[in-house]
Amino acid sequence: MILRSSAGGESCPRQRLAARRFVRAVFLILFLLFSVATALPPAIAGDTSVDRQLEKRQKEMEALKKRLLDNKRRIVQVRGRRHKLRKKILSLRVRAEEFHLEIERLQIREIRDRQQIRRVQRAIDHLGTIVDADLREKGSVESVLLSRKAEQALSHMDGVDILPESIVHSYVLSDQAHHLDSLVHGYRHKEHHLEGSQSQLKSLEKKEVSALRRQQGEESRLSSKMEHIKREIARLKKQEGSIHADNRSILRRRQKLMALISRLEKKRRSSGREEVYRHPPVLGRSRFLWPLRGKIIEPFGTFHDGIDIAASIGEKVKAAWSGKVLFARDYTGYGRLIILSHGNHLYTLYGHLDRIFAREGQRVSAGRVLGTVGRGGTKGKSTLFFGVTRRGHPMSPMRFLNR
């Protein structure tokens, strides 16, 4: 026993030294292998991982190109709408200028007609004075003629011998009587002619007055029409301003919503728990379920983050894909809102809800009832807002929904 223990005492240090040397050699070999593996070029170390990264980057580039084309189309549509609105305003302004010129022409015609009426009135007054003078002269001539005829009649009734002087006087009287008769006849003819001229001038004055009234009516009609056009231009300008204001508010609301999703995602990551999704949706391949079936009354666009589906109040809203409830509360502009995270940086949004059955942090499967439809959608109707976002950018839900 003593010899065995002494022999064992001599051999133990040697075995320990050999074991240490063996461990050092193993560590050295492992270190060399690790350094060689890390020093290998990417083509030798991981061709498959590089191919996957390149394929992923290529897909992302294609998606970015598609988004760029969509944004360009939307910009062209908005510019087309603005161009049509400006063209309509310009045409209304041209029509207003035409009406203004027409009113000015009518005003000039009115001034001319008034001048013509004044000239006719002056002519009528002048004829009236002439007629009055002729009538006065006619009265004096008739009185003289009557007196002469009376003297002649008295001379015939006396029954005395007519002296040659009286005969001569009677001849003179008869000549004067004939002359006075001719003058009276001439004055009567002139009076008749002046009366006809006066009636013609009065009829002409009536025609000018009626034409002036028609022109005034046409002028008032054109003025009212021009005022209507001015009001229409003001209304279109106000509508354009309200459209710009709505678009700005929509863009601000979209930015706030995207910032909310980003904050919620950062909060989830800061919690230290990595979410694992069994079947995350794949862009361009996966097909979502319809949250509910109905008519799309507001499509996806530049200033609309999703689609509005018409539905009756209280109709059930289902999850389009399995995921986790990221947000389930009231949110300004969207009413009661639910945001689901599905992995692969894809999120679905369900807005304008009446009741919410899901809780934040809860995992739901595709087709699970999330809530019911409420009011507050497009034009105050009962609609469901359904949106899809990826990496902080809204996408058209029609790219994911089954037809």
Description:
This protein is of the alpha+beta class and 403 residues long. The chain folds into two domains: 71-245, Helix Hairpins (Orthogonal Bundle); 287-399, Distorted Sandwich (Glucose Permease (Domain IIA)), CATH 2.70.70.10. 65% of the residues lie in helices and 14% in strands. It has helices at residues 2-39, 42-45, 47-157, 164-270, and strands at 296-298, 306-310, 316-318, 323-331, 335-343, 346-356, 363-364, 369-373, 383-390, 393-395. Helix 3 packs antiparallel against helix 4 (164-270). The radius of gyration is 55 Å and the shape is rod-shaped.
Q: At the third CATH level, what is the topology name of the largest domain?
A: Helix Hairpins
Measured by DSSP, the beta-strand proportion falls in 5-15%
Largest pleated sheet: 10 strands, antiparallel
Low-pLDDT ranges: 1-10, 42-46, 160-164
- Name the CATH architecture of the largest domain: Orthogonal Bundle
Number of discrete helical segments = 4
Instruction: Please tell me the total number of domains.
Output: 2
CATH class of the largest domain: Mainly Alpha
* Coarse shape: rod-shaped
